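Re-running the complex after MR caught last week's input typo. The corrected sequence lines follow. Everything else is unchanged.
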Amino acid sequence: MKKKLPLAGALRSKAFTLVVLLVILVALFTVLASVNNTRFFTARTFIGILSDLAVPSFLAIGAGCLIVSGNIDLSQASVGAMAGVILAVGISWWQIPWWGAIVLAIAASAAAGLLNAVIVNELGIAPFVTTLAISSVIKGITMLLSTDPGNILVSSIAFTTPATDAIAAASFGDIPATAIVMVAAFIVYGLMLAKTKLGKSIYLIGCNRVAARLSGLGEKKISYFLFINCSALGGVSGVILSLRSKQGTMLALQSDQFTGVTAAILGGISFSGGSGGMGGAFMGLLVIKTFNKGMMIADSNTYLTFVLSGVLLIAALTMDYVSVRRQRKRAGA
Amino acid sequence: MEYLEFRNVGKAFPGVVALDGVSFTARAGKVVALLGENGAGKSTLLKILSADIKADTGKVVLSGKELSFSSTAQAINAGISVIYQERQLIPAMSVMENVFIGELPVKNGLVDFNRLFLDTKAIIDKFGLPIDPEATVMSLPVAYQQMVEIMKAYRRDCLVIAFDEPTAPLTDTEIDILFNIIRQLKEAGKIIIYVSHRIREIFQITDEIAVLKDGRLVKTLTTPETDQQELISAMVGRDIGDTYASLDRNGEPGSVVLEVDNLCTDAVDNVSFTLRAGEIVGFAGLVGAGRTEVARAIFGADRILSGEIRLGGGSVRFKTPRDAIKAGIALCPEDRKEQGLVLWASIRDNICMPVLHKLKKLIFLDGAAQDRLTQAAVEKYSIRTPSLWKRALELSGGNQQKVILGRWTSDEVATRVLILDEPTKGIDIGTKAEIYQLVCDFAKRGVGVIFISSELTEVINVADRIIVMHNGHITGEVARQDATEEKVLSLAMLS
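Corrected-run output:
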């Protein structure tokens, strides 16, 4: 029995395409930056990119796993903002210990995921609509939480404790601790998807939910897990952002609203479910953030960054579309 | 005289030659059968005809003019209609809109629904069908949906109409309706190509037969001048003898393994029966009689309203298929591609699916164990594939069915009751015989088998007992020794 050549597979994989894209971006920005008399290719830039990654990486992991199973969650970033606000409000207004506030923030996020899962699985409402609606609900709750006893909406709630400050500042050499946690999370979730029964089941459910159910894969339980996981990880990214900025704000993660989903799709996790993996999601995120950082250093206009981000996504999806079509043609389907 | 000629048509896919220099001619007013086992190249030929794929060599000629289309739409406009098993209808739209899709009658810039209704009604009456032009397609039974597809081709006044296994989802009465329509089309001077596995139908409806095997044209025959034996040996390349008589059956069923008492669901009413270990119980009936629903209820896939199910003596009621599988019930669902297989996943994943939890090393899946299990199933069922990694969608229908059977056979799943829902639908004769024997092997190992089939000959010859259903009720039970097609059919059509 012939096994697939590992190298050939790697060359054709989405992650490889993204590595090429990344090299092109780095080269491009190095040139652009030198035109502007600044430097792109520095250790500082890369450490900067790495720490920029930490917050959205948890969004990408959660969204990625969920999309592989053929679902989607658009409420993730709102949930993250809520978690950040709960952390800040918990410490500075409710006077609960910092660890209690973190636990509460993540638990509330997980609860939002549970709510998504119940609506999607029990009421049979499309995940797209469900999570959009829940996102709105969460935004409202976050505003309510940000309203102080004098009935004034506080846009950013500062907090400080020695422990949270220490966590925010923790690093190994030049590399921030959060970056290390992020890499560890990618590895753990990557192994889960690629090597465990749960991971295999997620792919099979993403490919054909009915067949998976009739083969006893327990698709409902897994769907619950993935929604809760996605929201809880949204909470983690909100908490990390809050810890770093020493404040909680209902406006947090606004610009990262779709970063998780975008990175996953860019990295080859197809919207139709059942394909892609954590390596691709990581590379997708890396491309997005390198791009943003590069645009910043090259001192381009903000509007241009937005326009080009959109173009980048369309380009990646086109590549995905073409390769899927070629595959289908080859398979004669 | 109009004619359609395939001239030396060849097509290769990576790893397989699907068609190798096929030439034959279909004439107006004749029905030409394309006969062959799965993978013989029939579907590829139809896809070339409809311009879905391009031939590598050769050409297709319609009445002296070479056809070359760059899209299926062009082929349709040129009067070529291929009616596939997968119906190409818009389910939420009405019958009349589907029939006239693309050419809705217009008056003053708006759709003229009056004319649309009348024109559609005229076609429906010509076919002699009780269909409401305004009904949505999805509200119709599968058979009538197929008729809508045919009406679409008729409305376009297509000269060439090709049917790809049109009777697969139909019951015998519905097949009669279809054949009447085909005869009408024939009299109207159409060129008709008819792809089927069912030998009996070929003798009923066709005038000429082109037999394909492994991408080559083996023989062309005139229907009245040939017989079943000649066709089968041309198709299979050998004489397969009497399939049913040569089955190695389980002589003595054991004790009762499954008892169903007064089972009621949304679709079935007061169904009671018993199944012994090592016994094959057939379920016959028309499409929609409730056979699939009985299976799904037992399997925990549909909600049970009332009634009792006892497995090995103990009362059970499964909330999910997962619970049923744990208790030893296995289901090969009716729709192989939609419900049975994960088409884009490998053979290995498809076979290991229900037992993944037993194929672990610590927390990770054990690749070697999965390989072993898959290899064992591939050998046991002679699944023809170059690799365990091949995607399920690249296999022929027969091999796909064997993959699903392979799922329930390993030592890791203790299957006590196996439910097969239309296990041979769309499968060629050679593979059917293999599957019948595999089913008997399950029985010999002491598994109780429920065998649901719409093919009468098959169900009365494979099963030990036949339970007949009509409209959600059991209307009778016949032992194999006493079973005749007439007897079973009269129970199935009881009103």
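None of the earlier attempt is carried over here. The interface with chain A takes residues 13-14, 18, 44, 53, 299, 301, 320-322, 324-326, 331, 333, 338-345, 349, 353-354, 356-357, 359-360, 363-365, 371, 375, 386-389, 391, 393-394, 407 of chain B (CB under 8 Å). The domain at 3-236 of chain B is CATH 3.40.50.300 (Rossmann fold).
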